Amino acid sequence: MIKDRKGYLFRDREISWLHFNERVLQEAENAETPLMERIKFLAIFSSNLDEFFRVRVAQIRKVQKINGKKSISEFQSSPDEILSEIQRIVVSLQDRFTSVYNNQIIPELGKRGIYLKEEFELTENELTVMKEHFRSNIISQIFPVLIDDLKAAPHLRDRSIYLAVRMFSSDGNVEPKHAILEVPTNIVSRFYILPKSGNDTHIILLENIIRAYLPSVFSIFDYDKFEAFVIKMTRDAEFTISQDEENYSVSLLDKIQKSLKQRSKGSPTRFVYDEKMPRYMLDLLIKKLELKNVNLIPGGRYHNFKDFMDFPKVGLKGDYFESLPPLPVKTFDKAKTMFDVISHEDILVHHPYQSFDYLIRLLRESAIDPNVVSIRITLYRVAKNSNVVNALINAIKNGKKVIVLMELQARFDEESNIYWTNQLQEAGAHVHFGKPGQKVHSKICQIQRKENGTIAKYAHLSTGNYNGVTARLYSDFALFTKDKNLTNEIDMLTDILFTNIRRTGFNHLLVAPEFMKKQFIDLIDKEIQFANQGKEASIIAKMNSLVDVDIIKKLYDASKAGVKIDLIVRGICCLVAGIGNLSENIRVISIIDRYLEHARIFVFHNGGKEKIYLASADWMTRNLSNRIECGFPIYSEKNKKIIKDILQIQLSDNCKARIMNGIDDSINYNPSYDIKIRAQYDTYSYLEKSYPF
Questions:
Q1: Which of 290, 544, 556, 581 is the most exposed place for a label (fewest CB within 10 A)?
Q2: Rg of the chain (C-alpha set)
Q3: Residues forming the active site
């Protein structure tokens, strides 16, 4: 943690993120988490860490080349210090990861008759059955490279695992050789279920199948002994898009397609290896792979644990989270058309507790409604099989004008977004790609409909992506509205998005990058004024990450003025809560559970005239200053009550909430209460019993 010259305290964002991932790991360590869900949390932890090294560590290394030992800013240490601390924490977390897998998960699977078998544990019958699988599906996908005589080893692809193989003869008459081969998990399933042994289920991983048949892979040599260790390289996943061409939209699509091909060739940022690998083999790989300045992370026998998200569906019913089917929005279900309902009142929907399919229904109705004229929508992360895009294409077929802002630079979703861009363009949609240098992160959809001789406007505004897959896993809010205060300002925002016209005068929407940050600071300043006048003043804010320095300073000022501040921050939090004379009036919690907490909610007491906003933006500099974002007010008293009630449930959580204070960023908050409050389950119960629609 660093103090600036005025005494403001800041936690390093990278270290804070690692503590967030530690909270994910805690869910895997927690014996009360269902067994198969513990495996998934290990997979999420692993996937998160991959992205961290691909993006954040890669960026720090770039700064390191320029700054070296010099502090990045008055709010961050030097790259050398940050990278050193990252290495220390990651090695420690990796040890815990390996321990929970080996000492908890594997024994618990065994109690249920589920065994992950090593290659040396196979029976003769299993070897016979597996041999056919190896011959038919695997050996043709294996292409080993001998590295002893190469000046440099072959390029190791990002997000792949490899076997580093040592082959030698028991009599020592032949000089040992070393090879690297890619485990073809992108072609062959990593999990193979062996023939049943009584009531037991035996599963073997692809790399262990290959280990069992290494003599066949290297049959041309006279070796009878083989050792193989899994290794993995993580590479810089960032690419730079130049913005100097006249036709930005056309060139951007082409540039991103070309850049995606280069992503796997980025500079190495992390090398993970089996800690049982002999030191001389590791030294050989370090030399051949040129890993001198790369984070070396020892681990267990298995890597790329993200694949365990697709672990076979085995085990008992109680080994999984209980089913929570989406709750109905009764007014929509009873209505002939959704337009009839939205015409009379704003409807708030909370995913995944309530279905994302209500948006699909609205788009489907719009596609065939003779009175609908046009649909405008922003798309950030599009699902692989997108019902949203299919509905838009159907609208085009029915003669509707469809205008889409497709964000091509949504990291790691570029390929999917490019695919759907082509599909939409072929169907006849007007597809735009936003402004140079600014990602469009707002989530808005507006439908224009002829009613009584005029054009009526209906809108859907969301805190989350228009992605039906993530909507089943991410906790978000969406608002269906016909409120002219909002729809007229959405017109102004779409002018910015689709025609690059600068607009001012947003009195209802919070719009980044031009206005949102100032709007938030003004709202915090009002709370400070009320506190200074001796009046009640409070802020409740929920988000994914809190990083922006100006917002943090303003929250510290509010705390010192006596404003009561409750923050729910899932991920990075650079603010330090609970410090006397600085942040003693600030409380921060983080909730990690079965759903990813993704909604952004901001509540300001405002002298008793409460203001509540939902938004697509976190309090991060990139969101507030570098992206086009949209925050929207909640005016309906019924909807305000829903949001406040759910926030209070979250703030009362004593099962899955962690208190983040000035001492430790990852304290479990799980005391023995007579009444346990688990926010996500209690939210489901609340909506089931109390939802007013």
A1: 581
A2: 27
A3: 441
Whether 692 shows a pLDDT value over 80: the answer reads no
Residue where one domain finishes, among candidates 478, 499, 520: 499
Phi, psi of 411 (to 5 degrees): -55, 130
Mean pLDDT on 597-626: 97
CB–CB of 507/422 below 8 Å? no
Better-predicted residue by pLDDT, 433 or 360: 360
In this prediction the pTM is 0.91
Q: Is-contact 334 75, C-beta < 8 A?
A: no
- List the structure tokens of 482: 């016909």
597 shares a domain with 521: yes
E strands, 88-242, are 114-116, 145-146, 161-168, 177-182, 191-193, 201-205, 225-235
Residue 246 has pLDDT above 50, yes or no: no
Residue 340 lies in a domain: yes
3-class SS of residue 519: helix
In the predicted model, what is the mean pLDDT of the chain? Answer: 91
Domain co-membership, 308 together with 383 = no
Q: Which domain holds residue 110?
A: 2-319
pLDDT, one tens digit per residue, over 258-283 is: 655 555 567 888 999 999 999 999 99
Contacts of 563 (CB under 8 A, 6+ apart): 524, 527, 528, 530, 531, 537, 538, 539, 585
Among 439, 435, 446, 395, CA closest to 417: 439
Domain count, the chain: 3
Coil, helix or strand for 169?
coil
CA dihedral 138, 143, 146, 152 (to 10 degrees): -130
In this structure, what CATH number is given to the domain that contains residue 548? 3.30.870.10
CA gap 554, 552 in Å, rounded: 5
Q: Are residues 457 and 525 in the same domain?
A: no
Q: Which of 450, 479, 499 is the last residue of a domain?
A: 499
Q: Which residue has the higher pLDDT, 438 or 20?
A: 20
* C-alpha span between 32 and 490 (Å, rounded): 46
Residue 415, pLDDT score: 79
Q: Are residues 63 and 36 in the same domain?
A: yes
- DSSP labels for 70-93? S-SBTTB--HHHHHHHHHHHHHHH
8-state DSSP, 334? H
Query: Are residue 419 and residue 480 in the same domain, yes or no?
Result: yes
Tell me what pLDDT residue 433 has.
85
Residues 243 and 115 in one domain: yes
User: Which residues partner with 178 through β-bridges?
Assistant: 166
pLDDT at residue 170 is higher than 70: yes
Torsion, Cα 468 471 472 477, to 10 degrees, reads: -140
Confidence category of residue 618, pLDDT binned at 50, 70, 90: very high
Note whether residue 504 is domain-resident: no
